[in-house]
Input
Amino acid sequence: MKWDHSKVKYLEPFYYFAMSSDFSKLEYMQVSNYSGLPVLAIRYVKEYAQLLTEKQPKLIYRCTNERSDEFVFMDNGFYYSFPTYGYNTFADLLEGLKLGFSDCNRKYKVENGQLKEIHEGSPGSSEGEVYYSIRKQGFESFTEFEDAFSKGFPTREMYGEYLKLKKIKDDFGFATFDEAHVFDILNRKSLGRIKSLYEIQMILQTEKPRQENGTPKWYLESLQQEGDTLERDQGALEKFLSTNQQIVNLGVYDPERKEFKNYSITKVIVDGNNVTWSGRNKLAGDRPRARNILLVVQRLREFEFRDILVLCDANLEHEVEDKSVYDELYNSKLIRSVPSKTDAKEFIINYAKEFEARIVTNDNLGDWARADEWVRNHAKDDLIRFIIIHDEVQLAPGLF
Output
């Protein structure tokens, strides 16, 4: 069903017009008449709005008499007029047209439930009946209703799901809607932080929009094809979970356990000493910088890590060049000093073992890997590398 614009011709000029000005700030004066200058009666609301935007009059006259009711402004020897349709301001008129009403009395009567006073003809033919129907479904305007109906959405709820997935797809640069759908599933806190491949796949299949002829055309897919089995689809989905950068930013996929683990449940230990020396040259007389810790922590939080602990040597606070920043981080309990006479690196590794934590460091832990089986087995997957350039932190994508 296509919305018949012939029933609301007054809507056509506004339908293709997007407001770029704030007309609510115009000032108005009520007058009973105007004369003395040529009058240009503007036909379409779009053109009148463009004139107001270009000429920016300081005052709009609302002229009401027995013959007319108009918005009028004067510029360069001309009066420019447009019917008020009973609205007090031009901004109110635009809002009424957006909802599908040319006459404010009709709009107010419909909004107050007085449909019988404006209903003429067969059911659904009047603007009031149509407006009431689409608002009951949750749509905000005729424009939204028509766009939804053209895409096959009978309700605002289903249309809202489309808009949500489209926004995710556009904002994060996904190629297809099912990729955006997976991203949405992985972000759902109600599902827990560890999601099995089977769970992700079943939700994707269950929630996939369907029409009488199958999947709607707008729902472009790359991870699942119509008629494919779960087993055949798993390969494409696993590759997507393991390699797509936006997904990698959310968490890590374990191919052996076939589950996705969001970073937000992972404890992260920051090697404070290593981070403070990033970009510093000890031979040139540089000192470690506590601000590096702040930058790295902020970046980790952007990637949804929540359980973050910075471990440092006890003497680091006396070495940093920006002690006030260090003190602030320490007082906020973000930084902890390892016990005196304890090797910070050893303490960090033992802590990571106990809590299954990941370590943020650019130290390759070569000496420890030779002596410690856990380090050899976990260094590649559990170390997060980083780069700090001009106070911008990048986490190494290959190891994140």
